[in-house]
């Protein structure tokens, strides 16, 4: 498909997202979701006037540890648009940054890498009572839940969008690998604590390692709910790309 107008591409993504998530239980949802996935797969960093970032002078002066530690947020967010049915924006991760394991209660989502490489670990919550054994002693006092660790994959700009639904891949952790990374993010509906859509963070509980190789996936695991990590926070930056009107 010819890339005739960069503004029209992100505008068409937003319009298709509004159409898709206006009726997520409707008969045309699958077809609309597929069309949205196709459009999102076309988006590149230059369409949004973004370029990969190297370490800044301030970050380089921070000394040991990650180059952003104590200087700038490890993750920044550029807001593009939001309606009652979806939100869209860009997350920028510094080199070595991680968005910790978290959930999206009752939400659909789509993630398209714009530059860099992301390692995304995806999990599903399992029904209460599905556990065959109690959680390990390391769980501590936090609430625990049983989950299916489905996948751990690398995504680049050449990869198709990463999808999540209310029941599949709804929990995930996102790590920037070998440099900074950015991704376009669509969540539907947006987070809204007043309507039960608040973000919760989790830590994976693992038993003693069985060997040098990591356990095969998929596998059942225990998770413990935790507060937001002290070394993770998200700053805000202005969105430099084409305007979106809905």
Automatic annotation (TrEMBL):
Keyword set, alphabetical order: Dioxygenase, Iron, Metal-binding, Oxidoreductase
Record's keyword annotation contains Iron: yes
Presence of keyword Acyltransferase: no
Gene Ontology molecular function: any one: oxidoreductase activity, acting on single donors with incorporation of molecular oxygen, incorporation of two atoms of oxygen
InterPro entries: PCO/ADO, RmlC-like_jellyroll, RmlC_Cupin_sf
Residue runs in coiled coils: none
Gene Ontology cellular component list: mitochondrion
The protein, known as: AEDO dioxygenase
Species this protein is from: Neopipo cinnamomea
Lineage of source species: Eukaryota, Metazoa, Chordata, Craniata, Vertebrata
Gene this protein is translated from: Ado
């Amino acid at each position: 498909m010819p890339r005739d107008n960069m503004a029209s591409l992100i505008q068409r993504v937003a319009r298709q997202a509004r159409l898709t998530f206006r009726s997520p239980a409707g008969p045309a949802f699958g077809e609309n979701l597929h069309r949205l996935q196709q459009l999102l797969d076309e988006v590149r960093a230059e369409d949004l006037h973004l370029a990969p970032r190297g370490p800044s002078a301030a970050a380089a002066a921070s000394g040991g540890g990650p180059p952003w530690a104590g200087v700038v947020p490890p993750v920044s967010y550029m807001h593009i648009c939001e309606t009652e049915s979806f939100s869209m924006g860009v997350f920028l991760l510094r080199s070595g940054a991680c968005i910790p394991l978290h959930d999206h209660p009752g939400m659909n989502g789509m993630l398209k890498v714009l530059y860099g490489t992301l390692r995304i670990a995806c999990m599903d919550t399992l029904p209460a009572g599905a556990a065959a054994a109690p959680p390990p002693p390391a769980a501590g006092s936090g609430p625990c839940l049983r989950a299916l660790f489905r996948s751990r994959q690398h995504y680049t700009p050449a990869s198709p969008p990463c999808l999540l639904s209310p029941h599949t891949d709804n929990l995930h952790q996102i790590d920037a690998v070998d440099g900074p990374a950015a991704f376009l993010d669509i969540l539907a509906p947006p987070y809204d604590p007043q309507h039960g859509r608040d973000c919760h963070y989790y830590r994976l509980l693992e038993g003693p390692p069985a060997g040098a190789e990591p356990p095969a996936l998929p596998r059942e695991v225990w998770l413990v709910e935790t507060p937001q990590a002290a070394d993770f926070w998200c700053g805000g930056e202005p969105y430099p790309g084409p305007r979106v009107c809905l």
